[in-house]
Amino acid sequence: MNPDLPDAESVPGFATRAVRVGHHRTPEGEHAEPVFTTSSFVFGSAAEAAARFSGEQAGNIYSRFTNPTVRAFEERLASLEGGASCVATASGMAAILAVCMGLLKAGDHIVSSRSIFGSTTMLFNKYLTRFGIATSYVPLSDAAAWAAAIRPQTRLLFCETPSNPLTEMVDLRALAQLAGAHGCLLAVDNCFCTPALQRPLELGADLVIHSATKYLDGQGRCIGGAVVGDRKLVGEEVFGVLRTAGPTMSPFNAWVFLKGLETLELRMQAHSRAAADLACWLSEQSAVERVYYPGLPNHPQHHLVGVQQQGGGGIVAFDVRGGRTGAWQVIDATRMLSITANLGDVKTTITHPATTTHGRLSPEERAAAGIGEGLVRVAVGLESSADIRADLARGLALVEDEYSHRT
């Protein structure tokens, strides 16, 4: 049993913690969490200032690394993920960078899933290599490949599950056991599920990473990220990077994310229901060659839904006939869906991964990750499911009409 994980029987329910944890009411007696828009804090004496800076006394010093509103968000997210410590950052990518800077050194090695966000691949390949940190890539669900890729220098196993954009999954408990057997850390990007649907720390992961920009916010308003884990790795090592290098979350953004967490469980359940409906419908369309969604029985890792994931999530990807031409035709025919690479919004978004989120990868890298030219990714929002289907049907009909004329 992980001593940093709270005793489930003594902890209030998820929905209660999402609303209540982290707010330490001030003498003003406010009911809603306040926003502390201040760069610095005043000390009662020179001795108190010295004690704060030295770490002998807890308390606020400077908003780059201590701010009450940001701390409220950190405490709440840590509670929801089941972690002892959380560090909020300026973006999801800043969270990944802070993990790498805080926990890795020259000569270390990362084993990463091949199915990760394009910017994460660029960070590993273009920037970490400059500091002597190497990365090997493996298929996410291939346990033997993970084991074979580990070297004596391997320090970190990194994955997204479900993956972006193909929603591939990995058995987190098995991967955590592999990491532990080789003295490695396991970091899981939990952006697609959030703790409302998946809690990797409970399955043995060491670190959970978030782009708070996505579902934690839920309405596409702010940029932010977070790392959750234990008091040593996150509370000291990752926090030390934040304090020194300053990839800091703003107090206002933290306040927005606090409000987002209040409705997280309800939204994730609704996103999952709507995405499952859309995935089933897409599976019946003749212009669609394949649908990628964990909730479908034909998904290769469907058995993990209900075991480590409470629902299929809100992301659906599908291959359209005709490659890029067909995919763009479907996207451009939409009138309601938002053509944007962001996700996790109440508004449904649609994008072409090969030319947006994964556009900076080489054709060979995209092929290895399974990102084809006909692939479309939909982040299903909270509009009427019938309206989402109708908006996609227009473009799919055009593709089917063109395809039938060719044949």
Could you characterize the architecture of this molecule?
- By secondary structure, this protein is of the alpha/beta class.
- It folds into two domains: 252 residues, 3-Layer(aba) Sandwich (Aspartate Aminotransferase, domain 2); 143 residues, Aspartate Aminotransferase, domain 1 (Alpha-Beta Complex).
- It is 39% helix and 14% strand.
- The chain contains 14 helices and twelve strands.
- The strands form two sheets. Strands 1-7-6-5-4-2-3 form a seven-stranded mixed beta sheet, with helices on both faces. Strands 8-9-12-11-10 form a five-stranded mixed beta sheet.
- Helix 7 links the parallel strand 4 and strand 5.
- It is globular, with a radius of gyration of 22 Å.
- The N and C termini lie far apart (60 Å).
- The mean pLDDT is 95.
List the helices and strands and how they pair.
Elements: H1 14-20, H2 46-54, H3 68-81, E1 85-89, H4 92-103, E2 109-113, H5 118-127, E3 134-138, H6 143-149, E4 154-160, H7 172-181, E5 185-189, H8 194-197, E6 207-211, E7 225-229, H9 233-245, H10 251-262, H11 264-283, E8 288-292, E9 315-320, H12 323-333, E10 338-339, E11 349-351, H13 363-368, E12 375-379, H14 385-406
